[in-house]
Design a protein that fits this description.
This is 6-phosphogluconate phosphatase-like protein. By secondary structure, the chain is α/β, with parallel strands linked by helices. It is about 50% helix and about 10% strand.
């Protein structure tokens, strides 16, 4: 049984409660894009979450093009991605909060000195850094340990592509079998699982009536164990390290 040396944290709705704020900003921009193309589609933050949770904005625009047959030329795409990043960061800087219980757990893990701790996100690097800085979590992720599928890779992509996890492992000099990822979405869980990493599926931020549905979704995507609150993480990690999960 390989020793667990590395913990890979998704950012949005895993470390910080950013998903709802971000999707509000995304919805406003996507509605403008649809209107400009005479497409009779209107999203709210909530309907966008249901359709695209776990994808970054570039991934959402790609899905929009495929689903609704619209065309966005590359120059416009890059311009929209930058505009979304600015709009989301403004919202996050105003209102972002950490996920319940995560700060205590990050401190405890950091104090053990046993683990390399890294952030692996689909979101743009600037947004991820702004998020963890806003809530004071950046002190736990010093050095080159924050990775973004949108910004860090030679070719930008989004989860569920495993590329960002494979890239993070390579840069950290770690193997999949010595790592554990914590993810809240289907696409994130698939991304880590496809990279060969054991996943803890986190459902804490979901509404009560959605939690059990998400438990099934994350398990089906490959999560080995489900976590409802960060206070459960010490015992979950212990079981993983003992080879029970």
């Amino acid at each position: 049984m390989p020793q667990i040396t590395t913990l890979l944290f998704d950012c949005d709705n895993t470390l910080v409660l950013s998903e709802e704020l971000a999707f509000e900003a995304c919805a406003e921009l996507i509605n403008e894009i649809c209107k400009d193309r005479n497409l009779d589609l209107r999203f709210t933050g909530q309907t966008l979450i249901q359709e695209f949770v776990g994808q970054n904005f570039r991934g959402m625009l790609t899905s929009l093009q495929e689903r609704y047959g619209i065309e966005i030329v590359p120059a416009d795409l890059e311009s929209y991605v930058r505009a979304e990043e600015d709009a989301v960061i403004a919202k996050l800087k105003a209102s972002l909060r950490p996920c319940e219980g995560v700060d205590d757990e990050l401190k405890r893990l950091n104090d053990t000195g046993k683990y390399t701790m890294s952030v692996v996100s689909s979101s743009a690097l600037r947004r991820v850094r702004a998020s963890i800085e806003k809530v004071g979590q950046d002190k736990y992720f010093q050095g080159e340990v924050v990775f973004s599928a949108a910004s860090s890779l030679p070719k930008p992509t989004s989860k569920p592509d495993p590329a960002v996890y494979l890239f993070a492992l390579e840069k950290l000099g770690k193997k999949a079998e010595e790592s554990v990822a914590i993810e809240d979405s289907k696409s994130g869980t698939l991304s880590a699982t496809r990279a060969g990493i054991k996943v803890v599926g986190y459902v804490g931020p979901y509404e009560e009536d959605k939690k059990e549905e998400m438990v099934k979704v994350l398990k089906n995507a490959g999560a080995k164990v489900i976590m409802y609150h960060w206070s459960e993480f010490p015992s979950i990690l212990e079981k993983i390290e003992a080879g029970e999960v």
